Amino acid sequence: MKQLAAWRGDTLLLGKVWLAESATERMQGLLGRPPLAADEGMLIQPCRLIHTVGMAYPLDLAFVDKQGRVRKLVSHLRPARMAGCLSATATLEMAPGTIARLGLVAGEQLHWRPA
């Protein structure tokens, strides 16, 4: 699985973001993995809908379009729940509290660089 870093302009947001692109990687996602650390995330693409069935911990989510613009944010999605955004092409999964800590807002632009 490729590793990226998430940026907002010249500001590093998350230094370790795993990219899940293949069908197998997208289906597996974070299932069976330990909770994400504050500087970690998983970018799933393509992805418009996330479920947390089988997860043991909550997630913060940023649904982004193909330009990296944040279309929707979901904080603290608990296990056994679903969230989605039809205008998104990818979903960034993060540790709970990351949206607030980073001050993420809908409409802002994110971009990815190799880690």
TrEMBL record:
Name the InterPro entries for this protein: DUF192, Saro_0823-like_sf
Q: Which Pfam families match?
A: DUF192 (PF02643)
Where do the TM regions start and end?
A: none
**Family matches, as PANTHER family:** UPF0127 PROTEIN MJ1496
Q: What is this protein called?
A: DUF192 domain-containing protein
